[in-house]
Amino acid sequence: MKHTVILIPFLILLIALALPAHSVQAAPVVPTLSVEVRPQELAPAQAGYVFVSGGYPLRVSVTLDGRPLAVYWTGDGYLAPFAFDFDTPAGEHPIVVLASDPTTGAQVTYRQTVTVTAFQYPREEVSIARRLAALLDPLLNRNEEDWLAAVYTPRSNSTDWGWPFALPVPGEWITSKFGGDRTYNGGLWRAYHTGVDFRRAVGQPIWATASGRVVAVESLNVRGNVVIIDHGYGIFSQYAHISEAYVTPGQYVQRGQLIAAAGATGRTNGPHLHFEIIVNGIPVDPLSWMALMPGFVPPAEVPRERDQPIEEGTGS
Ligand SMILES: [Zn+2]
Fold it and tell me: Which among 108, 120, 216, 268 counts the fewest CB atoms within 10 Å?
């Protein structure tokens, strides 16, 4: 009896030690330190992150394919977002995390491989109204991409960034998915669809996907009137074709805050919201980014018969 009393707590302790202390994606490297890499498999033009937590103070460096990623202190850990562009071939990409304690000199290295799958975005034929055909000019398109790239270059920290990112409109009716490999008006211009399109009538509200600072309210040729928000850590969101902006550059907004009214400005056949998420300067699939938060429910898609034209309203 006496032995049993001692043995039971001892057995419980043994079982507890044998169980993994973290989920599959969070591997312990030292007793107090964990490294989470999510996702570990993704398509081109998708993003993920490395999150190091549990042991402070630390010096943390993260490399992807041997090149350093920016690492940000978030208040409860070290965040290093990563993204692959549309042209990334299928293959494996090593991530190496080096964490050291400057007071003791203790150092740990954590290695993880991220796999980019051989996903092909679907080909799409898009017809733009003839009055807008001038907006298919390659130089005009590249100038707009260059302007956007400059907006996405500065890096800031965030005071209250965090999951989840919210849908910028009620969670219904996507009219055009992210990533379509588009040919416009029989080949005048070809480009990937760098955002996701939501059905919206002119004047309907658009909300900020997450808190952050408005860095641009601008009238562009292709995207029309846009609002761009810097969420910190190299993560931006863009809201295009709007009729009206209710925010100004420099203004700090909260997730879910009304920022704009939908419209049909720029290269579009009709009103809709074109919504982008940009990570490390790369436009990535907004819904797969949001799906990194457990419990995310993707919005419905407008059913489209095979070989039917892209819905009226789509343009960029
Ligand atoms: Zn679009």
Answer: 120
Distance 64 CA to ligand 1 centre (A): 30
Whether 184 has a pLDDT exceeding 70, the answer reads yes
Mean of pLDDT values over 126-154:
95
pLDDT band at 12 (very low <50, low <70, confident <90, very high): very low
Q: What is the CA(135)–ligand 1 centre distance, in A?
A: 14
At 100 the pLDDT is 86
Spell out the domains of the chain, with CATH numbers in brackets: 11-116 (2.60.40.10), 123-290 (2.70.70.10)
Contact 48, 39 (CB under 8 A): yes
Q: Say what the pLDDT of residue 8 is.
A: 47
Q: In sequence order, what are the residues at sequence separation of 6 or more whose Cβ sits closer than 8 angstroms to the Cβ of residue 81?
A: 47, 48, 49, 69, 70, 233, 234, 235, 279, 280
CA of 52 to the centre of ligand 1 (A): 35
Provide the H-helix boundaries in the chain. Answer: 2-18, 138-151, 286-290
Say if residue 307's pLDDT is above 50.
no
What is the overall mean pLDDT for the chain? 86
- How far is ligand 1, taken at its centre, from the CA of residue 62, in Å? 33
Q: In angstroms, what is the span from residue 18 Cα to ligand 1's centroid?
A: 50
Report CA(194)–ligand 1 centroid distance (Å).
Answer: 7
